[in-house]
Amino acid sequence: MEQQLKELQTEALAKVEAAEDLKQLNDIRVAYVGKKGPITEVLKGMGKLSAEERPKMGALANEVRAAVASAIEAKQSALQQKAIQEQLEKETIDVTLPGRPVRTGNAHPLTKVVEEIEDLFISMGYSIAEGPEVETDYYNFEALNLPKGHPARDMQDSFYITEDILLRTHTSPVQARTMEKHEGRGPVKIICPGKVYRRDNDDATHSHQFTQIEGLAVDENISMGDLKGTLEVFAKKLFGEDREIRLRPSFFPFTEPSVEVDVSCMCGGKGCRICKETGWIEILGAGMVHPNVLEMAGFDSKKYTGFAFGMGPDRIAMLKYGIDDIRHFYTNDVRFLKQFSEHE
Amino acid sequence: MFVSYKWLSEYVDLDGMPSKELAEKITRSGIEVEGVDMLGAGIKGVVIGHVLEKEQHPNADKLNVCQVDIGEEEPVQIVCGAPNVDKGQKVAVAKVGAVLPGNFKIKKAKLRGEASNGMICSLQELGIESKLVAKEYSEGIFVFPNDVTPGEDALLQLNLDDEVLELGLTPNRSDCLSMIGVAYEVAAILDKEVKLPEIEVEEAAERTEDWIKVSIEAKEDNPIYIARIVKDVKIGPSPLWMQARLMAEGIRPHNNVVDITNYILLEYGQPLHAFDYDRLGSKEIVVRRAQDGEQFVTLDNAERTLSSEHLLITNGKEGVALAGVMGGANSEVEADTTRVLIESAYFNGQRVRQASKDHGLRSEASARFEKGVDPNRLQAAADRAAQLMAQYAGGQVLAGSVVAGEIDLEPKVVSVTLEKLNRVLGTNLQAAEVEDIFRRLKFEVKTDNEEFIVTVPTRRGDITIAEDLVEEVARLYGYDHLPTTVPVGATYPGGLTDYQEKRRTVRRFLEGAGFNQAITYTLTSEKKSQEYALESREPIKLAMPMSEEHAYLRLSIIPQLLGVVSYNNARQIDSLALYEVGSVFLKESGAELPTEEEHLAGAITGLWEENLWQGENKAADFFVAKGVLEGLFAKLGLLERVAFKKAEIAGMHPGRTAAIELDGQEIGFVGQVHPQQAKDLDIKETYLFELKLSPLFTAETEAVTYEPIPRFPSITRDIALVVDTNVEAGKLEEIIKEAGGKLLKDVRVFDLYEGEHIEAGKKSIAFSLKYFDPEKTLTDEEVVKVHDGVLEALKEKAGAELRS
Ligand SMILES: [Zn+2]
């Protein structure tokens, strides 16, 4: 009997070893380890054994069973691993092939610049004020200290619709309108972005339509030092921490004193083509709001002072991205538009 | 304004300050120096030569062989091609070894067999612009006056060792349209004195008033008119130094009398006119408005038709000068002129501007009158001109001037307090510092209890109010010295309005969905302005458009976007998704301004999804465009309130266009461009949408509130319906929703079939219905009850049968 069991074990182990898949293995399990298997058959003959040998045989039978079971288990795990291995091999892909593209679009470069400026000033407590692109002569010129016949009107030849209605030449009328709404009570802190129009022939540096963004702060005790400090924050944020600004006296009818503001060039003052060898780049015009403008909008110019500044996002975007032709902004060549998709 | 450094230094001690440094100081104090031009830059070895002999070149008709004394031991032989070269002339000679502009080196040469050791130069060859060279020398070499010595540096004689600063003047600083004005500015910056020219006029016994009478009929246009007369003048070239200065400042020399008037214009900023007294045609000057249609020939020999908007100087009968703009041909100073009448007047700026604009005659003179001249310089300018004509044209000045009219010569008094100065500038200036700045400006100042009472000279007509004084102080104190602060005071939150936030949300959504933002022109052609308009109105036209293409305000964004599609398609860019947010302009009868309506427009064409190697390309179609909009409406919390309804819109595909309604109000459309239109524009199949933003942004929406995550399972039932082909899915969905009631959570189309396996004129459309009760697990009985109701309603209202 012992002999029989050992033979069974050898036979079963050999079959386990030879099994090629889980099904065969399962058949082996049923055949050898199951209740109706040959081991059970052998044990049926135990009645002929002595009482001494019976437990020995029982133990041996259990050993054989265990050995076969464990071999099956080992084999099973090996086969499973092999199956996974095969699956993995079958599923292997070329990871260097391109991924499925995700559609992305992006804002127009002018919008990017405008939003960056808006957000900066919002963080300093400003609101965004907007107004009509078709304006009255009054708000576009007269309320800004530019009466009819004023020589400075030449500076901005305009598109008139009727004698009194025109396409705004700057976003300053929004300032006048907003101040009026405040009915002489400060503070007013606004940023006015928008499209503006001038009679220019379109070329690399001129466009009959362009973008402007202006700012206005009116309160008691607003000083020119405040203007300087505010613009310094602006320049550092927009162009970089290492940039400096300088103010040069200038002339605008709606401010007095008036200044042009230069930002130091990225060449670090050494002089280059962009700054025309001066180390400085003109980026905006500014000044203290002219008392006539304050008074016309209903503010007491003895009590209130204010500063205003204005700049062209077209020019700023051209400087920032090195764009050489303003017409690109309005042609909308997708190869141009898509260049501004990256986060900065 | 061009400013000669050497000339300027006659009025202000510049201490030899390098021109670049001076330019920087002027720029930083308020007048931008746009450039510094080194005259004679790149020129070396040009001397005065004396043409001793001139002989015809033996082998060339147009060449002469000259022997020229250039101050060396032996004369040199130079072959010269200039038509005006002649024996006895003093000329500029570029010696062998000399360098001319453009690094042109002069070498020993043989011209047609004759040795040539140098070159006789024209002014153009010395770097002077052709338009500045006196007419008599414009086609040949320049001939110097006889008092120059051979071998002398010709550049010095021509003032070509000078430097010229180009000032970019803002409209308020017309005081710097004169050398004296610039001198005051520079003196203030450098804290120096101004040396004015000394005027000494030797007068003859005869009196001007016996020769001429002046009367002014248009006193508003011409408050004052001063006339002086110089007799016995001899017309000839002006002195070389004067010609050189005029050229350096951009004015072409003519003759001594004309050059002197131009010289005074530059020196004092006062335009003068010189008449030939004998050609005036009378002994009087009458200043009046021209008559409408009056004819007048200006000295450029152009016949001009005047209007009553123009001011005319007449001899009592006919015009002799268009005031402040140009003299008449009839009274022009010519070579034989012997008696000159000098006009020094104040003409109203607007009057001059009108005439110079109407006749396209902008000149140095008109520019100055337009901005207003200094009334205190009228007499000095006339006197100085008379003096120079005596000196350089051999004339005799008649006694006195004839002055008609009068003008206020009193300087303005403007005050500002120290407190205001410091408050506006944010500074802590002391009274003495402020007084010192006014002293540098040569403004007389009295200080009374920290208030500065400033007498502003008439040359600074731009200073009228306290703020102007603040600016003078600030710019001379230096903006670099201002403190750097930010506004303090009441703080209050800034930020975007709800509308502005939503606009950004829309932009971000579309960009996330793959759209690029475009910005196109507001101005368009008449045809395009009306195409695709959501509301048809008469388009608004510019009074004076610059071109047909940009003459009208747009009523829709789409035509411009189609232009962008066409532009890109023409450059082999076939797949595009673009959007634009911008205003359209609706004329309102009765209102002053048009209504500006902000619209969102989009265009999609080509492939929407592109995955080359996996071969899964998806072309843009109607449902792509609609899906984007549905996503957008969902983002705005409005999807349930939006409906798409089949619509016909000009320029759109009649079977593939839907009007979009929000709460039953039409707000825009989406669809395919009409194939004919696409063909005309040469674009590929393109889908478009345009929407009004305001109704979307102002619609009341419910605040987002948390809804519990479902705890009970839902039950899904799929149905395939057979209906007539013209039954719209939207209609079926409506029926299902109505009949499904509260338990119906969701309904979706998941299949559409038309074809051979179905009866002609019918289609099969499959819906997936999801039933759900948030309170409990639904039982089959409950679902069956509702679902049967749905099927019944479909059959009854749409003739829908279940597909077997
Ligand atoms: Zn630079």
TrEMBL record, chain B:
Cofactors (names): Mg(2+)
Keyword Cytoplasm found: yes
Domain TRNA-binding: 40-155
Predominant localisation class: cytoplasm
EC category name: ligase
EC number: 6.1.1.20
Coiled coil (residue ranges): none
Binding residues annotated for Mg(2+), in chain numbering: 462, 468, 471-472
Organism domain of life: Bacteria
Domain B5 per the UniProt entry, residue ranges: 409-484
Co-factor remark: Binds 2 magnesium ions per tetramer.
Domain FDX-ACB: 710-803
Database matches in InterPro entries: aa-tRNA-synth_II/BPL/LPL (IPR045864), B3/B4_tRNA-bd (IPR005146), DNA-bd_dom_put_sf (IPR009061), Fdx_antiC-bd (IPR005121), Fdx_antiC-bd_sf (IPR036690), NA-bd_OB-fold (IPR012340), Phe-tRNA-ligase_IIc_bsu (IPR045060), Phe-tRNA-ligase_IIc_bsu_bact (IPR004532)
One Pfam entry name: B5
Gene3D superfamilies: 3.30.56.10, Bira Bifunctional Protein, Domain 2 (3.30.930.10), Ferrodoxin-fold anticodon-binding domain (3.30.70.380), Nucleic acid-binding proteins (2.40.50.140), Phenylalanyl-trna Synthetase, Chain B, domain 3 (3.50.40.10)
PROSITE patterns in alphabetical order: B5, FDX_ACB, TRBD
UniProt-annotated location(s): Cytoplasm
Catalysed reaction equations from the record: tRNA(Phe) + L-phenylalanine + ATP = L-phenylalanyl-tRNA(Phe) + AMP + diphosphate + H(+)
HAMAP family: Phe_tRNA_synth_beta1 (MF_00283)
Record note on quaternary structure: Tetramer of two alpha and two beta subunits.
UniProt protein name: Phenylalanine--tRNA ligase beta subunit
Organism: Pseudobacillus wudalianchiensis
Gene (name only): pheT
